[in-house]
Amino acid sequence: MLIEAFNRTYKQLLHPAFRKVFFIGALAATATLVVLLAGLIYIWPESYITGWAWLDRMLADAGDWLITLTFIPVAIMAIYFLFPPVAIMVMGTFLDQVVAAVEGEYYPSHIAQRQSKFSETFLSALRLGSMMLLLNILAFIPYILLFFMTGGLGSLALYLVINGYLIGREYFELVASGHHQMRDAQQLRRLNRGQVMWAGIAITGLFMVPFLNILAPIIGASVMTHIYHDLRRAGAG
């Protein structure tokens, strides 16, 4: 189900609706990276002062290379962990156009009866982006600890689970709410939480691949549309 959903999405990537949202996402990605890096550069200390004279002398002797050496990994982690929620907040407002394009091409007899209002898609994107931002900030210390304790595998697993759950939930309900009342869409998601969770984790993984992460929200919305309709045809929707 999941592999076929990605395959169908790949075949439709050049659709005009996909290109439009991608263009918006590219601008958002550029602005996001600039703001993140500018903010880190602004708050990053020009020197390290611990209060211990002998240690401060060692740090001063190390010079600028130590500042740079510590800044680079933090900047990389900040971009990887904070880029997805910001991109989702911007692009999420337009993902209903992606869903409509997928249903129009693959499921013309089951197009959503209810079109989402701009305010609804905006609030949905804002809610998802805010939750991802908040939870990833709260999990930042566990990410660091797991990174050193497990060689990075633990922090990767935690990142995928947290964001996979949130993305899977929001994207599935985005699609299902066009065919059901929100309460029924949420119930349908809970009944199929396994498939939705795995799809969310796969989509989250796309955000970790440079350049591909710009396409991740578009691919995610398309994949989840296929997941919903596969479940519907199987009698789950």
Polypeptide structure, described:
This protein has 237 residues and is mostly helical. It has one domain (2-232). It is 80% helix and 0% strand. It has helices at 2-11, 16-43, 53-62, 64-91, 95-106, 118-138, 140-150, 153-176, 182-191, 193-206, 212-233. The longest helix has 28 residues, at 16-43.
Defining key terms:
237 residues; mainly alpha
Structural class: mainly alpha
- Poorly predicted sequence stretches spanning 5 or more consecutive residues: none
Helix share, percent: over 70%
Instruction: State the end-to-end CA separation.
Output: 15 Å
- Overall morphology: globular
The beta-strand count equals 0
Helix segment tally: 11
| Helix and strand run | HHHHHHHHHHH
What profile does the largest beta sheet have? none
- How many domain units? 1
What value does the average pLDDT take? 81
Percent of sequence in beta strands: under 5%
Radius of gyration: 21 Å
Q: Helices, strands, pairings?
A:
Elements (H helix, E strand, L loop, with lengths): L1 H10 L4 H28 L9 H10 L1 H28 L3 H12 L11 H21 L1 H11 L2 H24 L5 H10 L1 H14 L5 H22 L4
Helix pairs in contact: 1-11, 2-4, 4-6, 4-11, 5-11, 6-8, 7-8, 8-9, 8-10, 8-11, 10-11
Brief synopsis:
The protein is 80% helix and 0% strand. It has 11 helices and no strands. It has one domain.
